[in-house]
């Protein structure tokens, strides 16, 4: 019998679901799923996850259904994370779970929405989408009779809050107060790196958004394939596709180049990670946490190429005048709603108005922020129209 090329031995530094540190609230184990797979399923069934379908990153939902949303982005990240974790001998369920959860706290209108909520709450504790994601899974989602939140495993919670690295230096920021409190009750080792699986999820996010921003940018007409020819990484790949397959039309050429770029980035992470594992000799998940640097990483050459690619995207896409107009409008929508809800909480829906009662101004501001952060792009636009345009009631 031949051995499957995908039967990669389990890495000694992979997380073992059978040795999970468990959940904050004791529960019987699932008969059909590992603890990490159960976490994944709980995330998929949340209201916050469903709402990602109409939360966008660069474009706004009404601009076209061909562009990525937070939901499609999260699915792409999860697919890359699962494949990469499997190839590295890590726990694919945990990597996929963290990938699916990583954007749950993003407000409507992408980074424009986050910037505005951060500004409006600067005197009330601030706003950070990573902290909001953590609050979604530990506090804001209420689906079970015996606890609030999703009661996820320690390993998933750790990966959600520190997949990009140690966060101990952030605890002095007002927006991280919720994390400080939770950590005091349920230590998450905020001064260390997270598991290799969480690090895979973080780099899978980088791989996904760099590639789909190229795809969406060309699709939106913000730049052309010819303009990408001199950009590191994508330029040489695009040139190779055109040379090898000159008969392809522009659309298929673009898609093939993006596919190859994903492959190149995944291969780079695998090579660099295996090299680091060999050099450091890590032999357990806790030894991964104890390293002074990330175990899962791009090579230095890839990081340099990605920096130049991001410079191109920043200049030609993220600050394009069309995108700037959308950002400006989005920020005004959220600013006006926040100000109104804080001044007149009685116009909030009944459930949210009840939450705002018997609170000081900072507490009411957090309720308003939570309500707005949970909105989809489309709902925020419609809610704003109902609040500020009388014609919708006629």
From TrEMBL:
Residues 1-38 are annotated as: Disordered. One of its GO terms (molecular function) is dGTPase activity. SUPFAM superfamilies: HD-domain/PDEase-like. Belongs to the dGTPase family. Type 2 subfamily. This is Deoxyguanosinetriphosphate triphosphohydrolase-like protein. Coiled coil: none annotated. Residues 16-38 have a biased composition (Basic and acidic residues). Keywords: Hydrolase. Residues 70-210 form the HD domain. The keyword Hydrolase applies. It comes from Caulobacter flavus. It holds the Pfam family HD_assoc. One of its GO terms (biological process) is dGTP catabolic process.
């Amino acid at each position: 019998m031949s051995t499957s090329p995908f039967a990669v031995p389990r890495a000694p530094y992979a997380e073992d679901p059978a040795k999970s540190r468990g959940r904050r609230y004791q529960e019987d184990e699932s008969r059909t799923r590992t603890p990490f797979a159960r976490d994944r399923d709980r995330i998929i069934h949340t209201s916050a996850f469903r709402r990602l379908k109409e939360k966008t990153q660069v474009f706004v939902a009404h601009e076209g259904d061909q562009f990525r949303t937070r939901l499609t982005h999260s699915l792409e990240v999860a697919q890359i994370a699962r494949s990469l974790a499997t190839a590295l001998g890590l726990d694919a369920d945990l990597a996929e779970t963290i990938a699916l959860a990583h954007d749950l706290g993003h407000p409507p209108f992408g980074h424009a929405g986050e910037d505005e909520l951060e500004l409006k709450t600067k005197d009330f504790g601030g706003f950070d989408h990573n902290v909001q994601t953590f609050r979604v899974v530990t506090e804001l989602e209420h689906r079970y009779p015996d606890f609030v939140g999703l009661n996820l495993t320690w390993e998933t919670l750790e990966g959600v809050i520190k997949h990009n690295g140690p966060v101990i230096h952030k605890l002095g920021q007002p927006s991280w107060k919720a994390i400080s409190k939770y950590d005091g009750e349920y230590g998450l080792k905020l001064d260390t790196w997270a598991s290799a699986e969480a690090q895979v999820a973080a780099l899978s996010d980088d791989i996904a958004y760099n590639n789909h921003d190229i795809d969406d940018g060309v699709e939106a007409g913000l730049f052309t394939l010819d303009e990408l020819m001199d950009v590191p990484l994508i330029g040489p790949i695009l040139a190779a596709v055109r040379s090898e397959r000159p008969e392809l039309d522009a659309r298929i050429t673009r898609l093939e180049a993006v596919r190859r770029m994903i492959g190149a980035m995944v291969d780079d992470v695998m090579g660099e990670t295996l090299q680091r594992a060999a050099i450091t000799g890590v032999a357990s998940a806790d030894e991964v946490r104890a390293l002074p640097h990330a175990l899962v990483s791009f090579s230095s050459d890839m990081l340099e190429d990605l920096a130049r690619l991001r410079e191109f995207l920043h200049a030609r896409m993220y600050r394009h005048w069309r995108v700037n107009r959308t950002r400006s409008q989005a920020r005004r929508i959220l600013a006006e709603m926040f100000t109104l809800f804080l001044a007149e909480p009685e116009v909030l829906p009944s459930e949210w108005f009840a939450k705002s009662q018997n609170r000081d101004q900072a507490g009411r501001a957090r309720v308003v922020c939570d309500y707005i952060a949970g909105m989809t792009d489309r709902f925020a636009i419609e809610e704003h129209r109902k609040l500020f345009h009388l014609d919708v009631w006629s």
